[in-house]
Specification:
Elements (H helix, E strand, L loop, with lengths): L6 H9 L1 H14 L8 H16 L1 H5 L5 H17 L4 H22 L5 H40 L4 H8 L8
Helix pairs in contact: 2-3, 2-6, 5-7, 6-7
């Protein structure tokens, strides 16, 4: 197993995941751009965020493939659609989680050497990659679910369908 030099920072996040989660939840509840989250929605996304934070080492590991992230987050996107959570709010929740996590790391880490700065950079790169992949696949899963629902209600010619779903999208492969 390849170890990150930033493992100590990952452990810091995992150890303080409940504190980070509390800060994140507070931000979401006060954010007008996530106003459609019901209490059941909040429970669902808190559980998902808790899993990310408590297992951050797994998610930022070099051994975790983009296919593994893809499978999980495409399914998450489908669940968000089925729960009638607007896609933009699901995206916002992930963006706020990443920002809350990173602010915690910056505020709780004392770094004063080139090596420690390198640790921060490595963790930043891996966290950004994970969150970027999770967002991409969440959107993909959400739009796949939306596409299936759309097809239940609408019948279009293949030409019109291509205008809505775009000829070169992953739907048409």
């Amino acid at each position: 197993m390849t170890h990150l030099i930033s493992d100590k920072l990952v452990e810091l996040v995992e150890r303080h995941s409940d504190e980070i989660l509390k800060r994140w939840t507070s931000r979401l509840l006060s954010d007008p751009s996530t106003s459609s989250f019901s209490s059941s929605h909040m429970k669902y996304i808190e559980d998902k965020a808790r899993s990310i934070l408590k297992n951050l080492g797994q998610w930022v590991s070099y051994e975790t493939s983009k296919e593994e992230v893809g499978r999980l987050y495409a399914a998450e996107g489908i669940e968000l659609f089925q729960m009638a959570i607007p896609l933009c709010e699901g995206i916002r929740a992930i963006m706020v989680l990443r920002r809350t996590l990173w602010n915690f790391v910056l505020n709780e880490s004392a770094f004063d050497s080139a090596f420690q700065l390198h640790q921060m950079q490595e963790l930043s790169d891996r966290v950004i990659l994970f969150f970027d992949r999770s967002l991409f696949y969440m959107v993909r899963g959400y739009t796949e679910a939306m596409h299936r629902k759309y097809r239940e209600y609408c019948t279009l010619s293949p030409e019109d369908d291509a205008q809505v779903l775009f000829e070169k999208s992953f739907y048409n492969r």
